[in-house]
Amino acid sequence: MRYTRKARYGDQKLDVREFVLPGGLMVAEALEGIWVGEDGLESLTWRCWDWVCRQIDYPPLPSPDYHREEAFLRGSSVPWVGFMRIKRSTKYEFWQFPFETIDHGLGDCEDTAILLCSLLRNPLSADEVHVGVGTYAGYGHGWVSLLKDGERYVLETTLAAAFPGGPYQVLEASPYRPLFYFNDEQAFEANGGLGELGGAPWEDKGKLRLIAEAYQILNAKVKVPI
Length: 226
Known about the structure:
The chain is an alpha+beta fold. The chain has helices spanning 25-34, 41-55, 98-104, 109-120, 204-215; strands spanning 4-6, 13-15, 68-78, 82-92, 129-136, 139-148, 151-155, 176-182, 187-189.
């Protein structure tokens, strides 16, 4: 089955797997700076997580939808007048490619999760790491899901830094409720599927406050104060 989302430019919808780009140039450059010779797999996974948390800021809150792009798509030149814009396009709530998130230094939960998944798909297989889309305490949310020894673990990319220790610390359990997983090769539903996501609010401030409260017990640094 094909699952699609809007990208920043153009009117087409892209398969969600097209957003995860392990071989992208900017992803490769970032990974080269993160990867050090003595890194084991878990250390590299943690360093990639920490890099995304530290390098990418969450859009300022409160604010209108960060994902709003307005562009003039077509025009023509008129003598003595110049370029005349004749078609305007406005797009809301699109997903960013990893290179856009790196270039802007800004991204919300799904943008940073897509970036981190793209980085981790270099050392990890398509069966081991996915972007998880679902709800957190009832709010629409996205995160990175790691599969190890039959258990799924969460890498929360809305934090200001990865908390100390290894990446396999937070089990993917309530208040996380995954409804969908994807990476560059796979896309599949879980726990009732994406139909349940339609009724979930995407209200960032309330969600991030709850995440900050929950992760403070792990001495995590948070991007949005409680």
